Amino acid sequence: MSKNLQDYRQSYEKSELLESSIPDNPFTLFEQWFNETEAEGGSGEVNAMTIATVGLDGFPKSRVVLLKSYSKDGFIFYTNFNSEKGKSIASNPRVCLSFFWPSTERQVIVKGMVEKVDEETATEYYHSRPRGSQLGAWASPQSSEIASREVLEENLAEVEQKYEGKEVPKPQHWGGYIVKPLNIEFWQGRKNRLHDRITFNLEDAKWNSKRLAP
After folding, report:
1. Residue partners of 89: CB distance under 8 A and separation at least 6
2. I want to staple 107 with a disulfide (CB 3.0 to 4.6 A). Which of 39, 55, 187, 191 is the partner?
3. In angstroms, rounded to a whole number, what is the distance separating the alpha carbons of residues 36 and 40?
């Protein structure tokens, strides 16, 4: 089975990224791009991001998670600590995030160190989730092998019964991570594949920017 994809092409001509228009702080530019992409409305879940970790087997692995908040301190997402990604992070806290927003022809890549958020922050977010999502955190032994779909349905039925009429407590194995960036690269698609790439590096608590060739 094969398929030739050589004619899959798109010319990027919507915008530009020039040194004269970039702020000193990359979080300011991230917020601008995030808001513009959200307003444009064509990128689905604008907070969807790919996180790449290095697994216990030495291989990198990427998967999509949802960004739940960001600030000058970093980017926060939530997951099961016992999952494959959780074990990878515990072993190697160096991670990479990437956002791809085709509707605005933009990409943002973040390299940084990750650490857990405090229990108070994680608990507050957990209880803001739909009740079904709270129960799902108990029902799914994330990344573990299971015999069938029915295992999940049975687990969910058990926790639904256990917490019927009660508040669902946050599991100790579930919480948040914050990625504290050391490098943030902004990619703006341009015509003739001469894309704009501006990268910010954190050096001595100060952000320095430079242009990279596409």
Report:
1. 53, 95, 114, 177
2. 187
3. 6
Q: Residue 178, class by beta-carbon neighbours within 10 Å (0-12 exposed, 13-18 middle, 19+ buried)?
A: buried
pLDDT at 179 over 70: yes
CB-CB contact of 51 with 97 (8 Å): yes
47-73 tens-digit pLDDT? 999 999 999 999 999 999 999 999 999
Are residues 101 and 46 in contact, defined by beta-carbon separation less than 8 angstroms? yes
The residue among 78, 91, 70 whose CA lies nearest residue 184 is 70
φ, ψ at 62 (rounded to 5°): -115, 145
**How does DSSP classify residue 190?**
-
Among 63, 131, 193, 211, the active-site one is 193
Surface-to-core class of residue 10, CB atoms within 10 Å of its CB (0-12 exposed, 13-18 middle, 19+ buried): exposed
User: pLDDT by residue (tens digit) across 191-214?
Assistant: 999 999 999 999 999 999 999 999
Is 149 catalytic? The answer is: no
**Largest Cα–Cα separation, the chain:** 60
